[in-house]
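Next comes this protein:
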Amino acid sequence: MNNALHLRTSPLSTRLSFFPLLVTALALTPALSQAQNAAPEITREKVERAVDALKHYGLGHKDAFTPPGIAIAIVYQDEVVATLVDGVRQVSQPEKIDSNTAFQLASVSKPLGATVMAKLISQGVQWKTATEAGKMGWDTPIQKLMPDFVLDSADVTHNVSSRITLGNLYSHRSGLPEHAGDDLEGLGRSRAEVIQRLRYIPGVGKNFEEKKYAYTNFGLTAAGVAAANAAGMSWEAASSSLLYKPLDMRNTSSLYTDFIHNPNHASGHVIRGGKWVFEKQRQPDAQSPAGGASSSVKDMAQWMRLYLADGKLGGKQYIPADALRELYSAHIDVSDEEKLAAKADASCDNAARYIYGWNACWNGKSVRLNHSGAFTMGASTVVTLLPREKLGIVVLTNSEPHGVAEALARGFIELAENDQLDARKRFPELFAEMKQKMDEAIRGVQTGILDPSSCPVHGPADVNLGRYIGTYANAYFGPFDVVRENAYLSVVMGRGKEDRFLLSPCRSNAQNGFDFYFEITGENAAGHELVQFAARNPDAPANKMIIPHLQVGELQRADK
């Protein structure tokens, strides 16, 4: 086991919770000269020219951040007008990407899964408790379907658990903080364990009453699982039987085992030493409705055709049109802060907000739907749909995110709307713009991460390590063991106590204790995190361990 913390399966950490929203905003924002109240006209000729430009100046652009493999599908007027592929499934291996290659979708799983939810709700699934019964809808409180679901168990004032609906959870307005539960997934906790422990996160009731938006994988996951269970199925079975199989999406699954055992799957890549390498595949089953689906561009084209044809495919109505439209047109009660942000967004003259699995942006008569996905262990994806124009594009890549997928999708949409743009100049501009904005956002989120060079103590010789050895715990995380490892301390954690990270000493603190730090690698890689120990007096054993950037990061000594 190396000395750096490696959270084995976690999604983007709380520290990187900006990421899905950042890349979505980048892909949504158009660079149009037309008046805002006039939706640009899109024609087949413009689409065809945009496809050619995408092929030559988008996929033709190569630099150090070009993913090892890229696959693109474009749908227009119920026709797959282009399938573009480039690169390899894994570096140093000869197998090429093709239209059937399965990629991990990351958070593009959300709009795909929202389609499953629309189908479930349209079927009139019934729920029943000991005292009442009803038909499932977006306004159904999740406790009607999952009675043991509780949030903010310590807050008796707001009592939100009985009021939070499927719609609240799917639109990220449940009161949960950003990426609640992701850290538990990273420690190997099961889906059921993560959902059960969400109740120990404080402040949810107040956030819910204030209608605060916060992007959460496990809030949405709980809603998807509860809805599928109400229909007598698991989420994975519901996705397969209600969407993937009827649409003949043969390389699509909501199970990691299907993806990894598919011989035609794309491995995730990261940059090490200036080169793309495959280290380890992300295993996202715990949050399958939010980030665990995998698919090919051929299959995703089928889904886009269904969506853009109001639920029809091949003349057959698979999902009622109203059920699909509700995913992006439902009224969402939002905070005043979010209303102001939408009003100030120059790219969306009417409103811009997250509804049910989609970011929706209105420009004049047209609505633009978008979602991005990202695993820092090697996935970057985006889908953009224009329902009025019947135009859609999906971009799948097998690399850590550097804005390439968003640049390709946005460049295509811009050119389809405005064929006067110079594609030879625009694509390089977009690649540079996306990369710069991503780098700026990452630097911003890393602000406050400990710089080891600022620590006056660089070795354990002057620290009484024995004061800190012991077990620390809280209801959310469970126990963390601090143990001696040669001349240093390590924290041992995880479901099977298999995760271990080395604590390097930094400085004395004002809490009669000492500050240490550890290095994060893997999906949560963000630098060095601070760990603080507190004691009642300078000579007493530590009675508290604090990891400030964890959502419930205060752990009490449990071995007194």
Q: What stands out?
A: The first helix runs from residue 19 to 28. The longest strand covers residues 366-375. The two ends are 29 Å apart (CA to CA). The chain has three domains: 35-108+251-400, 124-228, 452-557.
